[in-house]
Amino acid sequence: MYIAHPYLLFIGDAPDDLAAKTAQGIADWRPEWCLGQMRLPGCKADLKLPDMTIADAAAKGAKTLIIGVANAGGVLPESWSPMIVEAIERGMDVASGLHSKLTTLPEVVKAAEKHGRLLHDVRHPTQEFATGKGKRRSGKRLLAVGTDCSIGKMYTTLALEREMKKRRMKADFRATGQTGIFIAGSGVSIDAVVSDFVSGAVEWLSPDNDADHWDLIEGQGSLFHASFAGVSLGLLHGAAPDALIMCHEPTRKHMRGLPHYPLPDLKTCIDTNLQLARLTNPDVKMAGIAINTSKLSDNEAKSYLAKLESEYGLPTVDPVRTGVGKLVDKLQAW
Amino acid sequence: MYIAHPYLLFIGDAPDDLAAKTAQGIADWRPEWCLGQMRLPGCKADLKLPDMTIADAAAKGAKTLIIGVANAGGVLPESWSPMIVEAIERGMDVASGLHSKLTTLPEVVKAAEKHGRLLHDVRHPTQEFATGKGKRRSGKRLLAVGTDCSIGKMYTTLALEREMKKRRMKADFRATGQTGIFIAGSGVSIDAVVSDFVSGAVEWLSPDNDADHWDLIEGQGSLFHASFAGVSLGLLHGAAPDALIMCHEPTRKHMRGLPHYPLPDLKTCIDTNLQLARLTNPDVKMAGIAINTSKLSDNEAKSYLAKLESEYGLPTVDPVRTGVGKLVDKLQAW
Predict the structure, then answer these.
(1) How far apart are CA B31 and CA B29, in angstroms?
(2) Which partner for A287 in A24, A243, B26, B146 could form a disulfide, CB atoms 3.0-4.6 Å apart?
């Protein structure tokens, strides 16, 4: 799967910014790929991109219409069919991050076949993967892990890529979730892979590379999340990371979706990730800590980061507040 | 999915006993469900059951034709279609453990629709599962874990069920792999479940039960298997076991399928399973150790089991050589 750009981002009638967060992520991280946004009447989200019709975007060379909006139940409404068909007729591929597939809309399937365009359902891997082999690969790998889901792993990894490219290091973000896939233009939605093939899929996603090249692999879930720890472990083993970044949000009260589970303490979470990662890469080390301090004041954030830094002896950043320069310094010297 | 019995076991032209090991497992553990075997010319395996045609088995009341043979590549040859269709016409459901689905044979699908019979592809879960919730359930749970794949987890669990039922304890084997599913008549092929839903599928498989009831859950893989550890962890978290049995084969040289990986030592493997199991059941304890001593002499086996027993302070058995009575003694006093 390779999603051609530039993109037209469709956010429908998103009731708020949160419903358009996939599209917002793309606009934030790949502004150069985003020609414009398309909104329906009543849309409350705004990506601050030019509003365009399908015809406008096609005229400007849009290659893919991205359905970048979260609907209740992940459903693709039949009423969007004519708009999607028009995009296809005007030469665009279509990519959706919804649970319900583009291929469930018969008009869309017919149009794609007729015009030879691609339909990407990025949550549904079409690739067949082998089981993981656990063999060392050339090149270097970093994996973002976390105390919980939705705690900054993708953001941190993308910030690292941006900073490393700025320093002319060889680095590639490797996407394992839907928003990441739109941003990378390719990847594997790892939580949708059949369990037997999770580590194999990550090995496929991050093959042999130059000795001085870094794959920056997007983590998923947490080893301490009762729903998804198995996904996180398969990803950890397949990634066989040389370097781990631990992501955390210090004010979160419980594991996402599980009010009866507290977050693990940072030390336990770091130790357990290192311990289990050693199976496929005995040389794994921590590269640093990335904290989402958005709920702390400037002073609180500063002293919290400083405290962790001295406690763990690791560069500790908030990718938004401080940038990830300190982490990249460490990777440059790896 | 519920597979109706009695069964007719089809083993085709199996070139050796190994190719018929699924059917052999059913014949060993559910002899009362097995009316007979059906073999094609050239078959080298023998389940020591009466040879029957489809017509014979139907006349004796067979409810399901079981395709219990491993083919190269897991393929279902077109040439078996007429035989399967005959079974359907004579009133049987059909259940297959092969990778390629019964539903890929158009004649078979047509016959099943016409006669209202069920086609069970036990490697391909059709059920939709929720994500795991990590909530405590009533009743007691035991999970067999192991240092490696194919190391006696299913055999040990089934031996426990047999012994516990003999002692009139409330106990049910819960199948997580294809052979186990044929033996239980239901279950979930856990390595074929989409990774996000593995722990949820195990929660579904082992729901609330009487306080004195034991679910005996078949383990899969190993936390130390680089290909499948994620599956094992999702299974461990979903099972939320009160009791673990560690399974091991002391002469095995390397992890199955991974010649570059040695087996973990028993102590590390026990400690890691307990450590990770505590996330969803903080009260988890080891119930004992089950060793496959088939490659040791009587004396070697005896002294090896005695050594482990004193080293770990846990009842240690070989389910084949010594039976599992000692383990059940411990579970009776749980």
Answers:
(1) 6
(2) A243
Q: Are B305 and B141 in contact (CB under 8 A)?
A: no
- Report which residue type is found at A290: A
Assigned domain for B208 exists:
yes
Does residue A81 lie within any of the structural domains? yes
Instruction: Count structural domains, chain B.
Output: 2
What is the full per-residue pLDDT of chain A (334 aa) written as tens digits?
799 999 999 999 999 998 999 999 999 999 999 999 999 999 999 999 999 999 999 999 999 999 999 877 778 888 999 999 999 999 999 999 998 899 999 999 999 999 999 999 999 988 889 999 999 999 999 999 999 999 999 999 999 999 999 999 999 999 999 999 999 999 999 999 999 999 999 999 999 999 999 999 999 999 999 999 999 999 999 999 999 999 999 999 999 999 999 999 999 999 999 999 999 999 999 999 999 999 999 999 999 999 999 999 999 999 999 999 999 999 999 9
Give the strand order in the sheet containing A93-96.
Answer: A34-39, A7-12, A64-67, A93-96, A119-121
What's phi and psi for A100, nearest 5 deg?
-75, 140
- Of the three residues B121, B154, B174, the one that is the final residue of a domain is B121
Distance in angstroms (rounded) separating the CA atoms of residues A256 and A272: 19
> E strand or H helix at B325, and its extent?
helix B325-332
- State how far Cα A315 lies from the chain centre: 23
Domain shared by B62 and B91, yes or no: yes
DSSP A227-284: TTHHHHHHHHHHH--SEEEEEE-TT--SBTTBTT-PPPPHHHHHHHHHHHHTTT-TT-
What's the pTM value of the predicted model, to 2 decimals? Answer: 0.96
A99-129 per-residue burial string, b: 16 or more CB within 10 A, e: under 16: bbbbeebeebeebbeeeebbbbbbbbbeeeb
Structural domain range at position B60: 7-121
Q: Is B235 near chain A, with CB under 8 Å? A: yes
Pairs across A and B, CB distance < 8 A: 120
Query: Quick check: helix, strand or coil at residue A3?
Result: coil
d(CA B250, CA B311) in angstroms, rounded, equals 15
Is B229 at the interface with chain A, CB within 8 A? yes
Residue B79 lies in a domain: yes
Other Cβ atoms closer than 10 A to A89: 14
CA distance A314 to A236: 20
Using an 8 Å CB-CB cutoff, list chain A residues near B195.
190-195, 198, 230-231, 234
* Inter-axis angle of helices A106-115 and A81-89, nearest 10: 0
Residues 239-258 of A with CB under 8 A from B: 257-258
Q: How far is residue B28 from each of residues A97, B22, B43, B48, measured CA to CA in Å?
A: 48, 10, 19, 10
Q: Which residue in A39, A19, A239 sits closest to A137, CA to CA?
A: A239
Residues B250 and B157 in one domain: yes
Task: Tell whether B172 and B25 lie within a shared domain.
Answer: no
Residue pair B314/B271 in contact by the 8 Å Cβ criterion = no
Other beta carbons less than 10 A from residue A267's beta carbon: 11
Residues B152 and B87 in one domain: no
A110 within 8 A of A81, measured Cβ to Cβ: no
CATH number of the domain at A192, please.
Answer: 3.40.50.300
Q: Give me the count of residues in chain A.
A: 334
Query: Residue A51's CB: how many other CB atoms inside 10 A?
Result: 12
Q: Chain A residues with CB inside 8 Å of B200's CB?
A: 227
Pick from B189, B227, B232 the residue to mutate for testing the A interface (most A CBs within 10 Å): B227
